[in-house]
Every structure is written in structure tokens, then in C-alpha cells.
Design a protein that fits this description.
homodimer; alpha+beta; Arc Repressor Mutant, subunit A; SH3 type barrels; 6-stranded antiparallel β-sheet; two-stranded antiparallel ribbon; about 40% helix; DNA-binding
DNA sequence: GATGTAATTTTGATTAGTCAAAATGAGTAA
DNA sequence: TTACTCATTTTGACTAATCAAAATTACATC
């Protein structure tokens, strides 16, 4: 029933909310995240409010209602299952599946989604380590440290990569910074704003803090 | 680049053209096939003409240009490969894949399509026996007889079923009238407007001529 | 040739989604 | 308070796609 456009707005709002205290998202950041002019976002938010998918207080901000969040998570589930499917079944590279899933997430029926889920053996994460919401809309919330903050010298395993940019993902792949890989942070240099990690037998890799912050790890 | 709507109009026009002498399609039948009001079809045809996807003479009819046909065949290829994929890989029933493919045909990229084609081993027909156009836009044109006109008593094999309706397809399945099945026409009764066929060890099945005309067979 | 019918085209309106630019308002600095 | 800045909202306009209903036209029939 909701249009592709509406699904997109809700998904973006959900993702923004995750990074916002009190879940309240400003119009400006919302418009930017969706990629439309500010006025367009205001207009859409009003129609979303009419459909009871968001709460909105003029000049305060927007927030998903329960119904809106449910829908957003449904879209996110489709997106991530599709990504996993494209990598596991069709053999695409993890760096190229995001834009494909961005389209397919609006075209997959519940029936097809269920089959994909089954075929994949009910995966819990997508190729980037992002958790796949359950059909009921539950998301595993792991609290993961990033390479920019985790303990030095401890054996760690990459769990999630927080960037969908194709070039970034190819770089991460070449550097061995992909989910499942074991590594240790060798050193961190605040002045150089850099982190050096070593994954197994590979050469050590040094990346800037902003990149390190996008690689989430868990203890192993 | 072309919208989902445009893709749909072109695909429908292609399919109508196949049943029309001189490939010229009337506005009325075009509008009906797409499922819009006549005026809507007229308007769309004009914009398609501006894009050089159709030729159009007022009150005469519409016809695809080469560019239009190429695009239509591309959509048809996506549709049929997706149907085959849904049945072969995801295990959906042939009676339920048409509406799914109707949506997915507009959401599949060339890259994903190529992977699907490969995974399926470059199939030549979809689950209903409809030929899958090649990437270059060539369609195998077999000249198949239907159960309403083929020779009586000769061993035949079902090649194609010309109806996408879910109920019809379930009926065909139950009656053993699916592509690949071997059968013979036992008798044809013009007065009763009926055709009786026997498939292997099964009980003979009698169907009306209008149904028989939808089941295409080839000599075996 | 005149007329009637039915298909087709035109017209006027609507909805969803969008932008640019003007107007508004809330908070900060003076 | 007053003024200023910047985010937000409003306004006016546009495009794609649609419909209903009025106007047109081609064709068959008389």
C-alpha cells in the first residue's frame, strides 16, 4: 500500500533516528538524508503524519510512530535479506549490492521474501554485518566497539562495516577489514589521527580515525 | 531511464502487436490491454511518439519502432527470466509467479539479470513455455499447434500455455497440461465444442475448445 | 448524400512528488 | 529590547500519470 517513496522516507527516518538522542530528527537532516529540498521533506512529513506513520511538531522535529517503525523495519529487512541473497546466491560482490537492494527492497513480496530467507537459512546479518530485522520487527542490538575505540592488543573479530560506498567497501575488502575477519589493533596515534591493525598473516594496515570508526568489532 | 509505466506500455504493445496483422494496434485495444481509460492511452502514445518509441497516426493505430521493440523485449526478457527463477530457484508454483514478475521486471538491473540467467543455465523458455528473448532481442518463433487444431491420435508434447491466470494454471497443472508433458488428442467434438486428451497413464481430460486453444503442443 | 454509431481525441481536473524562492520564526548576540 | 542568522515552512509552479466527460471524426447504413 505505501508507495516506494513513502517506504524510502520511513527507512531513512528510522536510520537517522538510531543516531539521534530522543529519536527526534530535524527537518534539515531528514531532507538531506532523503536527498530532497527541505520544503519537500516538510510536505511529505505532513502526509506521513496524516497516515499516522510519524509524529511531528512544527519546527521541533519528526519521529516514527510504532506503525511507521514497523514499516521501516520491514523495508530494512527486505533490503538486507536482498543484499545477503545477492552475495550468497547470485554471487555479486558485497561492494555492489547496496544500490541494487535499494531498488529491489520495494519490489519484493512477502512470499518471495520468505523464500529468500529460507534459502539463505534465516541469516542474522547481511554482507556488511548489519543485523536483519525479524519479520516481527525485532533487531538484535549488539553494542559493538569500533577500531577507533576498542582495546589495543586484544584479539577481535570484525562484525560490521558502517559504510555502503562502493569504493570504500572495495578498499575494506582489500585491507582485510570484512565481517568475520580476526584482527588486533596494534596501535593508535592521536596526533596522526590514525589506527594500525593487523589481520592474521597480512601486512599491518593503517587507517585514519574516521575510517576506523566505521569498522565495528567484537571480542573473540 | 524509461519509467515503470513506459516499460509497461511498451511490453503490452509488443504483446498486442503479435496478435495483430500489420502490427498496427488500435487505441481501444491498447488502452484495454494496459488497463487505462482511452484518453490516457492517447496521451501516453503521444509522449512515446516524442521519444521515438512508437509510430502513431491519429485514429489509425500505434506500432512500436525498432527502439520501442528493443525495449519491450528487454522487459519481456526480464519478466520471463524472473518467472523461471522464481520457480526454479525459489520454488514458487508456476501459477503464482506472474504477478510477482510483473513487479520485479521493472526492478532488476542488467547485472543481476545476467547472474540469474547464468544460474539458470540460460533457459530458452519460462515456466509457461513462453520463449525468453535473448539479450540482443531475438525471440525463437516456433509455430506451434494448439490442442484445438493439432492432429488427432498423434503423440504430442505440451510446449506452451497461453494464460497467466492463477486459477487457470492450477487447473492446467491438475489436468496434466503443463509444458513437457506428453499426450495425445483422443477426440474432438465440434458440436460439444470440446476436446478430449489423454496424458500418459492419467484419466482422459475433456476441455472446451477455448481452453484447448490455449495449450500449444509440438510433435514428439 | 445525409445520418447515426462507435471509436478516438480533447479538455479540464486531480494526485503524488518535486523544486526554487519568499516568508516566517526561534534563538543568539549585542 | 533589538537585530541578526539560520532552520523551517509556505507559496507558486512544474511533471508524470491518471480519469470523466465533452467534442470530434470515420465509417457504415439508409
Amino acid at each position: 500500500m505505501p508507495s516506494t517513496t513513502v517506504e524510502d522516507y520511513l527507512k531513512r527516518l528510522y536510520m537517522l533516528q538510531q543516531q539521534t538522542e530522543r529519536r527526534l530528527v530535524s527537518m534539515g537532516s531528514f531532507a538531506a538524508a532523503v536527498g530532497v529540498a527541505p520544503g519537500t521533506a516538510t510536505a511529505m512529513v505532513k502526509t506521513l503524519e496524516d497516515s499516522r506513520l510519524v509524529e511531528y511538531e512544527s519546527r521541533q522535529g519528526v519521529r516514527l510512530t510504532d506503525a511507521g517503525e514497523r514499516l521501516a523495519l520491514h523495508v530494512l529487512r527486505r533490503h538486507r535479506l536482498v543484499e545477503q541473497f545477492l552475495v550468497e546466491v547470485l554471487g555479486l560482490d558485497w561492494s555492489e549490492v547496496h544500490p541494487e537492494a535499494e531498488v529491489l527492497e520495494h519490489a519484493i513480496s512477502d512470499k518471495v521474501l520468505a523464500r529468500i530467507d529460507e534459502l539463505l537459512g534465516h541469516p542474522e546479518v547481511d554482507p556488511h554485518g548489519d543485523p536483519i530485522p525479524t519479520p516481527a520487527g525485532d533487531v538484535a542490538d549488539r553494542t559493538l566497539a569500533s577500531l577507533a575505540e576498542c582495546e589495543i592488543g586484544q584479539p577481535m573479530r570484525v562484525a560490521q562495516v558502517l559504510d555502503q560506498d562502493e569504493r570504500f567497501l572495495r578498499f575494506a575488502d582489500e585491507s582485510g577489514l570484512t565481517p568475520g575477519i580476526d584482527l588486533t589493533v596494534e596501535s593508535r596515534d592521536d596526533v596522526a589521527d590514525a589506527v594500525t591493525v593487523r589481520a592474521g598473516e597480512r601486512d599491518a594496515v593503517t587507517v585514519g580515525t574516521s575510517v576506523a570508526a566505521k569498522i565495528l568489532v567484537e571480542g573473540v
